[in-house]
Amino acid sequence: MTNIASEQLAALSRLFSSGVVREMARKGRSPIFARLATQSGLCQSLPASDRVRDLFEAAFALLKREGYRHEYIYKAALTHNILLGIHGLKNASMLTEFRVRECKADVAILNGTSTVYEIKSERDSLSRLERQVDAYGKVFAKVYVVAAEDHVSSVLCSVPSYVGVMRLSKRYHISRLREALDQPERTRPDVIFDSIRTQEARSILLALGVRTPLVPNTELNAALRELFIRLKPREAHEGMVRVLRTTRNLLPLSELVARLPYSLKTAALSVPLRKLDHERLVSAVNTRLKDSMVWA
Amino acid sequence: MYHPYFRGKQYELITIREMASILQEANFCPIIEPVKETLNGLSRTLKAVAEVEGHAIVIVNPHHGDLSESGEPLTELLQEEFLNLPGISAGILLKPHMSVAEALECFEDHSDHSPCFIHAGFTDAKTLSVKLSVSMKEQCHIFVDRFCGKLYQKHFKQAHRVLLRDGFQRKRNRDYEELEFFSDLHVTYPDEGMDGFGDFLIVGDDYSETGGPAYAVAIHLTFIDPDKDDAMQIYHFVSDRQDTPQDPAGKFAEALEKMISILKKKHYKIEETSAVQEFRELHRRGHFPGLGYIKKLSMNHHIETLARYFDSAN
Fold this sequence. Notes:
heterodimer; A: alpha/beta; six-stranded mixed sheet; about 15% strand; B: alpha/beta; eight-stranded parallel beta barrel; three-stranded antiparallel sheet; about 35% helix; globular
């Protein structure tokens, strides 16, 4: 396959959507996978002895090529290089699709500080970037835009200077073109409060010695908000990093992640899965391709 | 009589358990489509139903959820624990691509459990009715309204017939009008030539695995309106804030406030059920018990309202 037709490309991309992983995990089989495997043309071109995991790897290899990359490929590059490569699941947490105001941050990583990554693949437009970067800057100490080659120059001129810029190279390496500034003092407690859960805000306050007011639970959020917005940005941010590293800890997934092929590790880290589904997901992924075709 | 159709999630099962006596006294018979892999909750619920000598239909080949691939564990559960309890029957879901042979085989397999059919997309009514005709009089056939027209239903004329209609218009919570028509089937089912009727309570026929975060919190409350020929209406009390998934507890308080203000009006028509009393108590305490619990209260209220309606009619 040198040139990929657009229907094939759509099928390849959808293989990595959360629906497929969720279906395999819950049922041990995925009709959507079987359909997409056929539509992508991959199933027909792979050896008879291959397994479901091999098809994912082959699809990933195709999507990795420049011009075909979509968001998942970027997310995977970040997960592999930064989360699994530099920090490890023990020392850092990853948030995906984390809501800040009306935006959803693609990937954020919390270790000693917090770093958010906004992905602009070759298939994305830059129209929302300004608003996104502005919102993320109010919650995270470091903000990066990870851009496709074509977007790099316009991203560099349009975003504020505290925002770092990265590029995903032709060889699927992430390179830093400009460092992000680490500025927890730039964050805003009110925006942080509105992005996290009530119980998380409560823990942050508690750790700072601020007691939870005795009110009915329907009034708790409003009461905590009043206290939270009085925090200094640094305190609120530091508290957020500390608490979210516990509440959004991905360490329980490490065994599962180790048993999945490279291409699916990121999916397993971003789709919420029940513990009892882990084994089923692994066995679905290890199914022979020809047996998986009856899933359709 | 009345057949509320439940997907067997946690709070649906709790509703049936809590309402077991009321269901039995009113001669109501819930239909349960189990959707969860673990069957402890289902088993406990059926025992509660059996305890009060009530009735329930358990679908042995669910269309949705964990057991949609194979209902084998359900057949086993019925065989092992509920064989001698005549109140628990097996429901066979007749889905679009099922063959007559498959339907009959399932019917035979569950002959010990007074099997009944739920028609939900199956098309070959004629062949099936011919094959079943010998014992048709003792059979119960349940029709999901949106799949079965009058001509289809005609084939099963001799049987005990029940019509299921989804009165719940599923929308995003924010899109509800405060007051809507729900259903009049509890009044009109005899005119439809039926021996019973059913609905999908205040949950609706649409099935979702997770639901995702709620941006708006809604409380649904049904009532029967004597000024509208006893048609059933539904209130949707929706929170004011609807733009983020934050603070479900605070949003519940907003929705509850609207409900309480209706209950303060002079001639409100909502039955003072145990669920309504609990809503009043939650309002007094400012307490949010969780979204599943609220759904349970709305379902309890719906069942109790219909039970009172038929009780007073008799």
